[in-house]
Amino acid sequence: MRHRLLAPVLVLSASLCLPGLAACGAGTEPGAETTTHASGASPSTDPDSAGTSDAEEGAASASESADVDLSGKTIAIDPGHNGGNADNPAKISEPVPDGRGGTKACNTTGTSTNSDYPEADFTWAVAKKLRHSLEEAGAKVVLSRKDNTGVGPCVDERGTFADDADLMVSIHANGSESSSVKGFHIIVADPGEDAKTEKASVSLAKSLGSAMGETFTPNQAYGKDAISRRPDLAGLNNASVPAAIVECGEMGNREEAKLMESTSGQSKYAAALFDGIVDWF
Ligand SMILES: [Zn+2]
Protein backbone atom coordinates (compact mmCIF):
# COMPACT_ATOMS: atom_id res chain seq x y z
CA MET A 1 0.00 0.00 0.00
CA ARG A 2 2.29 2.73 1.18
CA HIS A 3 5.57 0.99 0.54
CA ARG A 4 6.22 -1.35 -2.30
CA LEU A 5 9.94 -1.12 -2.52
CA LEU A 6 10.96 -4.72 -2.45
CA ALA A 7 9.29 -7.83 -3.70
CA PRO A 8 8.88 -10.33 -0.89
CA VAL A 9 11.09 -13.35 -1.36
CA LEU A 10 10.52 -16.21 0.96
CA VAL A 11 13.57 -18.08 2.06
CA LEU A 12 12.72 -20.49 4.79
CA SER A 13 15.17 -22.42 6.83
CA ALA A 14 15.02 -24.77 9.71
CA SER A 15 18.04 -23.06 11.20
CA LEU A 16 16.97 -20.16 13.29
CA CYS A 17 18.17 -17.90 15.99
CA LEU A 18 15.52 -16.80 18.38
CA PRO A 19 16.95 -13.75 20.03
CA GLY A 20 15.68 -11.68 22.83
CA LEU A 21 15.30 -8.12 23.78
CA ALA A 22 18.89 -8.08 24.87
CA ALA A 23 20.59 -10.23 22.37
CA CYS A 24 20.50 -11.45 18.85
CA GLY A 25 22.45 -14.13 17.23
CA ALA A 26 25.73 -15.83 17.53
CA GLY A 27 28.51 -14.39 19.57
CA THR A 28 26.45 -13.39 22.54
CA GLU A 29 27.55 -14.40 25.95
CA PRO A 30 26.14 -17.25 28.03
CA GLY A 31 23.06 -16.27 29.94
CA ALA A 32 22.06 -13.73 27.38
CA GLU A 33 18.54 -13.52 26.13
CA THR A 34 19.33 -15.70 23.20
CA THR A 35 18.33 -19.08 21.99
CA THR A 36 20.45 -20.23 19.12
CA HIS A 37 19.57 -23.14 16.93
CA ALA A 38 22.75 -24.17 15.28
CA SER A 39 23.08 -24.19 11.57
CA GLY A 40 25.40 -26.01 9.24
CA ALA A 41 25.75 -23.21 6.78
CA SER A 42 28.70 -20.90 7.02
CA PRO A 43 28.26 -17.15 6.79
CA SER A 44 29.00 -15.49 3.52
CA THR A 45 31.20 -12.49 3.20
CA ASP A 46 29.81 -9.34 1.76
CA PRO A 47 32.46 -7.34 -0.06
CA ASP A 48 29.91 -4.84 -1.31
CA SER A 49 28.84 -3.88 2.15
CA ALA A 50 30.10 -0.62 3.43
CA GLY A 51 29.57 0.05 7.09
CA THR A 52 27.39 3.04 7.65
CA SER A 53 27.68 5.00 10.81
CA ASP A 54 24.68 6.57 12.43
CA ALA A 55 22.53 7.81 9.62
CA GLU A 56 21.34 11.34 9.60
CA GLU A 57 18.08 11.71 11.37
CA GLY A 58 15.39 12.14 8.80
CA ALA A 59 11.76 11.46 8.25
CA ALA A 60 11.13 7.76 8.01
CA SER A 61 7.98 8.34 6.14
CA ALA A 62 7.58 12.02 5.44
CA SER A 63 4.72 11.63 3.01
CA GLU A 64 2.76 9.67 5.59
CA SER A 65 3.51 11.78 8.61
CA ALA A 66 2.00 14.79 6.90
CA ASP A 67 -1.49 13.29 6.95
CA VAL A 68 -1.32 11.40 10.22
CA ASP A 69 -2.19 12.91 13.58
CA LEU A 70 -0.66 11.21 16.58
CA SER A 71 -1.29 14.12 18.94
CA GLY A 72 -1.73 12.92 22.49
CA LYS A 73 0.01 9.61 21.82
CA THR A 74 3.20 8.61 23.59
CA ILE A 75 5.32 6.02 21.86
CA ALA A 76 8.24 4.22 23.44
CA ILE A 77 11.05 3.04 21.18
CA ASP A 78 13.76 0.71 22.39
CA PRO A 79 16.78 0.61 20.08
CA GLY A 80 18.29 -2.76 20.92
CA HIS A 81 21.69 -3.00 22.66
CA ASN A 82 24.13 -0.08 22.86
CA GLY A 83 27.40 0.89 21.23
CA GLY A 84 29.39 0.66 24.45
CA ASN A 85 28.14 -2.75 25.54
CA ALA A 86 31.00 -4.73 24.02
CA ASP A 87 33.58 -2.84 26.04
CA ASN A 88 31.73 -3.33 29.32
CA PRO A 89 31.20 -7.07 29.75
CA ALA A 90 30.97 -6.90 33.54
CA LYS A 91 28.23 -4.31 33.50
CA ILE A 92 26.08 -6.04 30.92
CA SER A 93 26.48 -9.39 32.69
CA GLU A 94 24.91 -8.14 35.90
CA PRO A 95 21.71 -9.96 36.79
CA VAL A 96 18.53 -7.92 36.67
CA PRO A 97 14.86 -8.82 37.21
CA ASP A 98 13.45 -10.77 34.27
CA GLY A 99 9.90 -9.69 34.99
CA ARG A 100 8.73 -13.19 35.88
CA GLY A 101 10.40 -13.71 39.23
CA GLY A 102 13.87 -14.61 38.03
CA THR A 103 16.90 -12.77 36.71
CA LYS A 104 18.48 -12.18 33.35
CA ALA A 105 21.77 -10.69 32.19
CA CYS A 106 21.58 -6.91 32.02
CA ASN A 107 22.12 -6.70 28.29
CA THR A 108 24.22 -8.14 25.47
CA THR A 109 26.35 -6.85 22.65
CA GLY A 110 23.96 -7.84 19.88
CA THR A 111 24.94 -9.26 16.54
CA SER A 112 26.54 -7.72 13.45
CA THR A 113 26.70 -8.12 9.70
CA ASN A 114 29.51 -10.04 8.07
CA SER A 115 31.26 -6.72 7.50
CA ASP A 116 31.03 -6.02 11.24
CA TYR A 117 28.31 -3.41 11.12
CA PRO A 118 26.85 -3.67 14.64
CA GLU A 119 23.23 -4.31 15.44
CA ALA A 120 23.36 -1.45 17.96
CA ASP A 121 24.25 1.00 15.18
CA PHE A 122 21.41 -0.27 13.01
CA THR A 123 18.79 -0.10 15.75
CA TRP A 124 19.95 3.37 16.74
CA ALA A 125 19.78 4.66 13.17
CA VAL A 126 16.29 3.27 12.62
CA ALA A 127 15.08 4.52 15.99
CA LYS A 128 16.19 8.08 15.23
CA LYS A 129 14.39 8.07 11.90
CA LEU A 130 11.28 6.56 13.43
CA ARG A 131 11.33 9.09 16.27
CA HIS A 132 11.56 11.92 13.77
CA SER A 133 8.53 10.75 11.81
CA LEU A 134 6.47 10.08 14.91
CA GLU A 135 7.24 13.52 16.28
CA GLU A 136 6.41 15.07 12.92
CA ALA A 137 3.03 13.38 13.24
CA GLY A 138 2.51 14.92 16.68
CA ALA A 139 3.45 12.05 18.97
CA LYS A 140 5.57 12.24 22.07
CA VAL A 141 8.45 9.78 21.77
CA VAL A 142 10.53 8.27 24.55
CA LEU A 143 13.67 6.27 23.84
CA SER A 144 15.25 3.66 26.09
CA ARG A 145 18.71 5.11 25.52
CA LYS A 146 20.00 8.58 24.71
CA ASP A 147 22.94 7.78 22.43
CA ASN A 148 24.81 4.93 20.80
CA THR A 149 27.99 5.18 22.83
CA GLY A 150 26.77 4.21 26.28
CA VAL A 151 26.16 0.93 28.09
CA GLY A 152 22.76 -0.63 28.59
CA PRO A 153 20.23 0.17 29.88
CA CYS A 154 19.52 -3.26 31.31
CA VAL A 155 16.64 -5.30 29.98
CA ASP A 156 14.37 -4.56 32.94
CA GLU A 157 14.60 -0.83 32.21
CA ARG A 158 13.99 -1.54 28.54
CA GLY A 159 10.51 -2.53 29.60
CA THR A 160 9.75 -0.14 32.43
CA PHE A 161 10.87 2.97 30.54
CA ALA A 162 7.66 2.58 28.54
CA ASP A 163 5.31 2.66 31.54
CA ASP A 164 3.76 5.99 30.55
CA ALA A 165 3.57 5.23 26.83
CA ASP A 166 0.72 3.88 24.73
CA LEU A 167 2.93 1.18 23.27
CA MET A 168 6.51 0.04 23.08
CA VAL A 169 8.40 -1.15 20.02
CA SER A 170 11.81 -2.70 20.49
CA ILE A 171 14.01 -2.64 17.40
CA HIS A 172 16.46 -5.46 16.79
CA ALA A 173 18.07 -7.45 13.99
CA ASN A 174 18.67 -11.13 14.12
CA GLY A 175 21.86 -13.13 13.79
CA SER A 176 21.12 -16.60 12.54
CA GLU A 177 24.24 -18.56 11.75
CA SER A 178 23.03 -19.51 8.31
CA SER A 179 23.37 -16.77 5.73
CA SER A 180 20.43 -18.27 3.85
CA VAL A 181 18.00 -17.40 6.62
CA LYS A 182 16.13 -14.26 5.69
CA GLY A 183 13.25 -12.16 6.83
CA PHE A 184 11.78 -10.26 9.73
CA HIS A 185 9.89 -11.67 12.65
CA ILE A 186 8.11 -10.17 15.61
CA ILE A 187 8.00 -11.33 19.20
CA VAL A 188 5.45 -10.76 21.96
CA ALA A 189 5.45 -11.85 25.60
CA ASP A 190 3.39 -14.92 26.41
CA PRO A 191 2.18 -14.76 29.07
CA GLY A 192 1.89 -11.01 28.96
CA GLU A 193 1.55 -8.53 31.77
CA ASP A 194 -2.15 -9.45 31.84
CA ALA A 195 -4.64 -10.87 29.36
CA LYS A 196 -5.68 -7.48 28.04
CA THR A 197 -2.13 -6.27 27.51
CA GLU A 198 -1.12 -9.56 25.94
CA LYS A 199 -3.98 -9.33 23.47
CA ALA A 200 -3.05 -5.75 22.63
CA SER A 201 0.57 -6.77 22.14
CA VAL A 202 -0.46 -9.44 19.65
CA SER A 203 -2.59 -6.87 17.87
CA LEU A 204 0.40 -4.51 17.76
CA ALA A 205 2.62 -7.30 16.43
CA LYS A 206 0.13 -8.07 13.68
CA SER A 207 -0.05 -4.43 12.68
CA LEU A 208 3.72 -4.12 12.62
CA GLY A 209 4.04 -7.36 10.68
CA SER A 210 1.49 -6.30 8.13
CA ALA A 211 3.28 -3.01 7.53
CA MET A 212 6.71 -4.65 7.45
CA GLY A 213 5.38 -7.19 4.98
CA GLU A 214 4.66 -4.44 2.47
CA THR A 215 8.38 -3.97 2.01
CA PHE A 216 10.24 -6.81 3.65
CA THR A 217 10.21 -10.58 3.73
CA PRO A 218 8.41 -12.22 6.65
CA ASN A 219 10.26 -15.20 8.04
CA GLN A 220 7.39 -17.64 8.07
CA ALA A 221 9.42 -20.20 9.93
CA TYR A 222 8.01 -18.27 12.90
CA GLY A 223 4.47 -18.84 11.67
CA LYS A 224 2.36 -17.55 8.85
CA ASP A 225 2.34 -14.06 10.34
CA ALA A 226 6.00 -14.27 11.42
CA ILE A 227 5.02 -13.71 15.05
CA SER A 228 6.46 -15.74 17.89
CA ARG A 229 5.40 -15.74 21.51
CA ARG A 230 8.00 -16.14 24.21
CA PRO A 231 7.95 -16.17 28.02
CA ASP A 232 11.63 -15.46 28.55
CA LEU A 233 12.34 -11.98 27.23
CA ALA A 234 12.86 -9.62 30.12
CA GLY A 235 12.27 -6.42 28.21
CA LEU A 236 8.85 -7.55 27.07
CA ASN A 237 8.08 -9.10 30.46
CA ASN A 238 8.89 -5.83 32.20
CA ALA A 239 6.67 -3.79 29.90
CA SER A 240 3.30 -2.83 31.33
CA VAL A 241 2.01 -1.54 27.98
CA PRO A 242 1.40 -3.30 24.64
CA ALA A 243 4.87 -4.21 23.44
CA ALA A 244 6.63 -6.07 20.67
CA ILE A 245 10.15 -6.78 19.51
CA VAL A 246 10.70 -6.40 15.80
CA GLU A 247 13.60 -8.43 14.49
CA CYS A 248 13.90 -6.42 11.31
CA GLY A 249 15.89 -8.97 9.38
CA GLU A 250 18.91 -11.22 9.39
CA MET A 251 22.27 -9.47 9.65
CA GLY A 252 24.06 -12.53 8.30
CA ASN A 253 22.01 -12.51 5.12
CA ARG A 254 23.86 -10.69 2.37
CA GLU A 255 20.82 -8.99 0.88
CA GLU A 256 19.33 -7.86 4.17
CA ALA A 257 22.70 -6.78 5.54
CA LYS A 258 23.12 -4.38 2.63
CA LEU A 259 19.74 -2.90 3.40
CA MET A 260 20.51 -2.55 7.09
CA GLU A 261 23.86 -0.92 6.45
CA SER A 262 22.47 1.70 4.08
CA THR A 263 20.75 4.93 5.02
CA SER A 264 18.07 4.25 2.41
CA GLY A 265 17.44 0.79 3.83
CA GLN A 266 17.26 2.14 7.37
CA SER A 267 14.67 4.65 6.19
CA LYS A 268 12.59 1.82 4.76
CA TYR A 269 12.65 -0.06 8.04
CA ALA A 270 11.69 3.09 9.94
CA ALA A 271 8.89 3.82 7.47
CA ALA A 272 7.44 0.35 7.86
CA LEU A 273 7.54 0.56 11.64
CA PHE A 274 5.91 3.98 11.47
CA ASP A 275 3.09 2.59 9.35
CA GLY A 276 2.61 -0.34 11.68
CA ILE A 277 2.35 1.93 14.70
CA VAL A 278 -0.05 4.33 13.00
CA ASP A 279 -2.27 1.51 11.76
CA TRP A 280 -2.49 0.02 15.26
CA PHE A 281 -4.13 3.07 16.82
ZN1 LIG B 1 19.16 -7.70 19.33
Automatic annotation (TrEMBL):
Residues 49-65 have a biased composition (Low complexity). Keywords: Hydrolase, Signal. PROSITE patterns: PROKAR_LIPOPROTEIN. It holds the Pfam family Amidase_3. Residues 37-47, 105-116 have a biased composition (Polar residues). Gene3D superfamilies: Zn-dependent exopeptidases. Residues 29-118 are annotated as: Disordered. SUPFAM superfamilies: Zn-dependent exopeptidases. Residues 1-22 form the signal peptide. Coiled coil: none annotated. Residues 162-278 form the MurNAc-LAA domain. Transmembrane segments: none annotated. This is N-acetylmuramoyl-L-alanine amidase. It comes from Brevibacterium spongiae.
